[in-house]
Each structure stands twice: as structure tokens, then as C-alpha cells.
Amino acid sequence: MNREGRGATTPITTGTPAPTTFTGNHALELEEGLLFEIGRTEVTGVDIEDAGDFTSRLGGHERKLSLDLPGLAEPEAMRHYVRLSRQNYGIDSGLFPLGSCTMKHNPRLNEKMARLPGFADVHPLQPASTVQGALGVIKELSRWLLSLTGMQAVAFTPKAGAHGELCGMMAIKAAHIANGQKRDIVLVPESAHGTNPATAALIGYQVKSIPARADGTVDVESVKAALSPQVAALMLTNPNTCGLFERDVVEIADAVHAAGAYFYADGANFNAILGKVKVGELGVDAMHINLHKTFSTPHGGGGPGAGPVVLSAALAPFAPVPAVVTDGESLRLVEEEGEAGADQALGRMSAFHGQMGMFVRALSWMLSHGADGMQQASEDAVLSANYIRACLKDVMSVPYGERPAMHEALFDDAWLEGTGLSTLDIAKALIDEGYHPMTVYFPLVVHGAMLIEPTESESKASLDLFIGALRDLAFAAKAGEKERFLGAPHYAPRRRLDETRAARAPVLRWTRPPLAEAAE
Amino acid sequence: MRYLPLTQEDRTEMLARIGATSVDAFFADIPAAKLNPGLPDLPAHKSELAVERALGRLAGQNVPAGSVPFFVGAGAYRHHVPATVDHLIQRSEFLTSYTPYQPEIAQGTLQYLFEFQTQVAQLTGMDVANASMYDGSTAAAEAVLMAHRVTKRRKAVVAGNVHPHYRETIATVSRYADDTVTALTPAPEGGEDILSAIDAETSCVVVQSPDVFGHIVDLKPIAEKAHAAGALLIAVFTEVVSLGLIEPAGAQGADIVVGEGQSIGNPLTFGGPYVGLFATRTKFIRQMPGRLAGETVDADGKRGFVLTLSTREQHIRREKATSNICTNSGLCALAFTIHLTLLGETGLTRLARLNHANACKLADALAKVPGVQVLNKSFFNEFTIRVPGKAADVIEKLADKDILGGVPYARLAAKAGLDDLILVAATEINTDEDRAAYVAALKEVLA
Fold first, then answer.
1. What's domain B83-339's architecture?
2. Which of A351, B218, B305, B419 could pair with B165 in a Cys bridge, judged by C-beta atoms 3.0 to 4.6 Å apart?
3. Which residues of A touch B391 (CB under 8 A)?
4. How far apart are CA B151 and CA B351, in angstroms?
């Protein structure tokens, strides 16, 4: 018997390389097979009571074939998804400097509020008398958005930013139709998000590109020259995707209005000016607001988002159904086009009444910050971006450096000239340093763009470490340490993936291997 | 402020490093006259406790579905979701991650999307599915636009028994895209004539099954007629649990299958966020909207996943993209795939049987209430009853008795002149006591 138990460990350095493991795992880094490789169709992780005897009323449409859907017992399912989650990087993992995406802290209070049974367990078609609090959330969220933007009305149903763009542009088209105007051109600056031209084209507009001037902002003279009785609208992101405020915005708006067109603003970068300026006072007619950016609702690996659209007095009558209206002491929904309160409504964007789950989360963030906290948040976001730019401008190259940055610091790839490295290599090397890369190759107007948006959620220590990492990478790149970059990432769950192969012969689903192989 | 890590000292140091005296310098490009001095009509920041109180008050003004006998459906359904699902989707690596544009550190998201796509394809009987749309209604509208691209025609036929909100969503986008929609008249008793509306200009026929009134529709003859005319069949469902029992549209000749996935994994949440399912045939993948995860290998030859075929998408193709969609329903798709993984085919089939059994029992019980007529010969977990007088009044009176008894069809389509119809849904959540309470209350209301 060994009464002393195990002795204390003393590290020994063997000098031999790390062994290959049997499982392919590396301690906490665990490989995970596909559900279809580990699950079985006869296994279930949910106990469901037996339906008992009854006469089916399916009218002869019973499914005859197996769906071939594997199940996992609860412990297996837990492990499958926990293991998968560990192959992901999130905001909670570290600084997430993805420009134009506003990856700020997602408070868990918001999650808790959205899960209150009074919000999560309410059906959209319950009688209005049983959902007064849900309608109250929409009303209150609208009040905050209108206060923050100085606009007239909110179309609250769009489900994400691009859906908000579609809503705003349909409102513009509806207004032109109501005014007896037939216009077919939409002006979009070269630096715009891809969703802008895609949205305009979706509803039949021709897209005409507006060039940027040398300082990275839209050329007001080019806008004026492009305006004509055929132009329906200008779509402009402000602050723009170069992280600069369009300082001629009022002059641009005036010119657009003088030509009988409307001014659509892409609100993706609203975080920079939150509480600082009301876009309604800048001449904006419609702007979507990404609640999943500025108002902290989680990105969730690609959604869900929410893209309510604020509208000017000129466009307010065309807001889609449903609308929430006050009826004496209570609130109710106007759900059909043509009804009183929606007589000029542009139509319906989707079933039901928008992303309530996101509304609650956003309102929770608004109430938490208040007027003072929101102004401080946008100031901190802008200060942090300018700090990053100031700390990196001697080792990386800054286009449009003469203008103050807003909430994003933009770099190009001029500083990489002669190194044999590209923007993509820097991004992948940043993964090895424990960061999600910045937005790369966007905006298109800047060669090899690297767009860094720190948001207000970072401490100074966190910003300094990130700056230190990028400075070190910049020195290494210039010193010719190519392997650090070209092989990167070295330490991620996967090395660089073959995207060309994925697109050439797409494998978009698992398929059961042929039985013949198994029989051999 | 608890969410802002910078201290006043940090801010001063950072300004000094930049060489600015105040943050005002960074806002110098905003016309000075337009800068807000403050926001006097909005309150100051609040503690976590104070926010909980404020939002708790609003939540308290709603009647949660779980607190009463509940039979409301019409496109959103209350099902039991295992506790595991909500725990897992709140793993911060899932919750706080971005669209997986950097695949080396997003394999978790990409693999579950690949699994989700496979599950949706298997469920619908189709070849491929995308990584989700906003919801069922927008998926239906996108399917119509896709059918126009595939057929190079611009006239859609939309069946009268498609959910009215879906019809309006399709009609709205079509109106602004200058496309034509032939919208057929609702047929509450089923047996709708769709075939005679199909002609040589038709790009697609949109048919829902089970339809909004609950009837299960035979899609095969519609698929045959559509194909003979060079058109596509778009099959729609709003209750995905039905696919546990009913023959999938893919096996009946559908070219695109779209639907609402909320029922699996996702709470009601007053209508959103939900998850749109979108599946089609391999030959059409390059015309599909939305994101797609695909399999590949990494530099070491290990299997991995990436977003692929992005040359269809707005961030690459801009005005030539197949859709403007960007953010979709990632986390709702995760909830869907986890719940479906827990169910497996065995659990899904049992769940569907229990839903159908409960609906059959309820239909039989309601049919015995004097004055009530059940319109359906076939249904899954939702059917339509005709009541004497206005359905909306009946539903209000039932609500006064703490029974949420269904959806008046007129709530969805006020102008259809079908004011005496109620759509009634039953799922696994309903007990014998719930059904008895509904029947008793309805008898009193109609007496």
C-alpha cells in the first residue's frame, strides 16, 4: 500500500518534440465529428409521452420514407455543441476589432430580460388586451430611437440591416409613386456596403456609383453633377466606411432634396454619433439602425439582427404595417394596409411584428446607459479608434490621415510594399496573437484595407496589448519574418482553409457514404 | 457606467498620446450647429436592478402563453423546448461570435451550419439548404425572386390558402420590383383550384401545406402542371413539426421548399426573431439567396468548413447579387439544429404524432359544441372552425375567461369577408384539462 499517495509533480524538460496523439486532440483543444457520424436515428435526447390510440386525419399524406435524421442523447448533445463552441472566437474571448460591425460587449442583463415569460412566451397574434406590455416595448423603443435621431416615425419590423434598407428604399419608391414621379436611378458612393447597391437593384433601380474625393469623403460636386429628375435617392453611410464623418452632409442633403430625390442613410456606423448629433437635423429621410451593432444585441454567429428604420415627415406616411397606435388608455396594432393609420403604408415586410426579442435587449441597453451613458459610449468608441490610429501610424500606413477618425481606424497596405505579404497575411497572423482579425479588403476604395473598430468596450490595457501585437507584427513583416505570416494561423483549430476547392465542387451537406464500402 | 472600462485618467492619457485636448476634436467634422448639447428628453443611466424593474413592469402587462390554456398558432407555435437548447445557445462563443468570415476561428459556427443545412435538406426531401433566412415569410418572398431568376419570367401564382402575412410579404416586394403576382381567393374548406391559374407566363406557384386553414394539400398534381408549363413549384410550411409525419414536399416534386423553423428550438417571443428555412435542388444552387457553409480542407489536409459560393452574395457582387441579405438568423438556426439533434428522427416522429393526436382530440371535442363546425377533412396540428357571429368577438370573450383560443382569420385578412372563422392549434403542451376548459368556455361564450 502506498500511504503517501501521489507525490508533487516536478516539471522535466525532455527536449523531444510534442507527441502525436491517438485521438487527434490536444488537451483542451478537442476534435469533434459531424452529428451524422456520431448520431443514430433510433436515439433520442427528448422523452415524449406516447400519443396513444387515435384515428389519423392526415388525409393519406403520411410520410413513407425515413428522414435519416440522427439523434443524440442529452449528454452526447451537450458535449457535441460545447466542443464546437470552443472552436469559435467571440467578443467574450477577446478584442474583436471588426470594422463596420461594432462588436461591442453584449450584456447578459439583456438576455435575462428577453427571457422573461412576459416577452419570450407571448404569441404575436394574442388579443391586444393580453400584450399591452409587448406593444409598450415597441412604443418605448420607438420613442428612444426618435429622440436619438430627431426623426418622425419608426418602421420597426425590418429583421436586419439589409431588410431595413429594403424597407427604407421601398418607402422612397412609394413616395415617388404617390407624387406621380417615375425615377429609376439610385446614387451610391463607391465606399458603400454591398447591401446598398444590392438593395437598390432588388427593387428595380439602376445603381450609379459616386466617386470619393482625395480625403476619403463623398465629393459633393460629383453628387450634384449626378443628380437629375431620374434620380430617386442617394444612399450614404455616415460616418462613412472609411471611418470619416461626411462633413458636407447638409449640403449634400440639400442638393438631393432640391433635385426632388430622397436621402437614405445607412446607419451601420451609428455608434460613432450616438447621442452626439440627430440625423434628422442633417436632412436624412430614412435610416436603418442595426440594433445588433449600436444597441448591443448579440451577433450570434450571423444573426438574428434587427433593423428598424427611422423616417422623416416626408416618408413617415409610407411606413409598412403593422403600426402601433394609442387608443385611449391602451395600445393596439394597425395590421392591414389601407386601414386608418396605415392608409398609405408601403405594404408588409414580413409576418408578424418584427424582432421583439431584439427590441427588449436593445431597450435594456438604452435604459442601462441613459442619455449620459450613450454619449460617453460613443465618445469612448471614437477616442479608442483615434488612439489606435495614433499608436500605429508610424508603422502602418493611414489613408486620409489628415481628417479625424470617428469610431474606426482605417489602414491600407502601402506599408507592406516589398515585404511579399498581404493584408490577409496580417489578418491571419493576428489570429495567432489571440485576436479576431479586423475587417479586411473593405472598403473597396482603399487598397488592401484594414478597418479596425475597437468599440467602447475595451480597457486601455486591452487596447495597449492589441496595439503592441500589431506593432510587433509590423516590425516582423518589415524584418522579413515571412513564415510567421504565410503559414498563419499556426495555433487556431484549423490552418488556412481551401476556399477555392470549396467553391469549385461545392459540398453543402453531409451524404451517407455508399453502402458498398461498408460491406467490404 | 458598468459597461465602460475606460477611466477618466485613461481618457486623459489617451488624448495626450493622440495630441488632442478633448474628444471634441474628433467630432470636428460634424457641423457645430448640429451637435447635441445634451439629450434632455431621455433619462440618465440606470442600475441593473432598476432596468429589471422597468422591463419587469412591461413584461408583467402581458399574458404569457404558458399561464393559460393556449391554442394560438397561425404561423407561430408554442412547443416545449428542452433546457439544454437555451443553455447551449448562450455559450458565449456562439452568442457573441460574428458571421464566420474568418473560418480558422469559426469552425464551431461553420460546422453547425453545415449540419443545419443537412438537417433541413433531409427534412424537406431536397438536395441542399442554405444557412437560414430571417423567417418563413421572407424566405417565401426570396423564393419567388429566385424563381423569377431561374425561369426568366416575372409572374408568380400565389395560392389563396397561403398564410395572408406571407402573401402580403410576397406581394409587397413584388410590387416594388415591378413583378406580377396572381393572388388566388382563399378556400377555407380546402379543395382550392390552383391548376387553372398556371399558364405559360407563370414563373412559380406558391402553395402552402398544411395550408393556413390546416388542410394538407396534395402537391404532386400542382408540381406536374407547373413543370409542364415551365414553372417552379414553391412549397411553403409554417409548422415544421408537421414534417415528422407528412410526406415532404421534396418527394412531391417541389423545386424550392421554404418555411418557418420557429417551432423547433425557438420561443414565441411575440413574432421574432425566428428562422427561415430554404431548400432547393442542386441545379439551382447558384441562384440561391443567403449564406452557404461548405466542406473543404485546411493547409494540413484536415477537414474544415467555410462560407462558400459567396460570388452570389451582396458583399462580392453588389448590385448583381442574388439577394441583399447579409445578417440572417444564425443563433435561431443553432437553437433549431440543437433541438432537432436532441429529437432525432425518433423524437421528431413521436412529437409530431402527439401534436396530431392532440389536435384530433380537440377537433372532435369542439365539433360537439353547439353551433361550431370543423371545416377540415385533413389537418396536422391546426384546423379551422366556423362559429356563429364574429370570430374576433368569440376570441375576446374567451380571453376574458383566460382561454387563448386561436386566431380569427379576419385578424390576418380583414378584407376577405371570412369573419366567422377561427384557426385553432393544438400541440404537445395541451393537456386534457386545457381541452376541457376550452370546450366549456366556448359553450358558455356561444350560449
1. 3-Layer(aba) Sandwich (3.40)
2. A351
3. none
4. 38
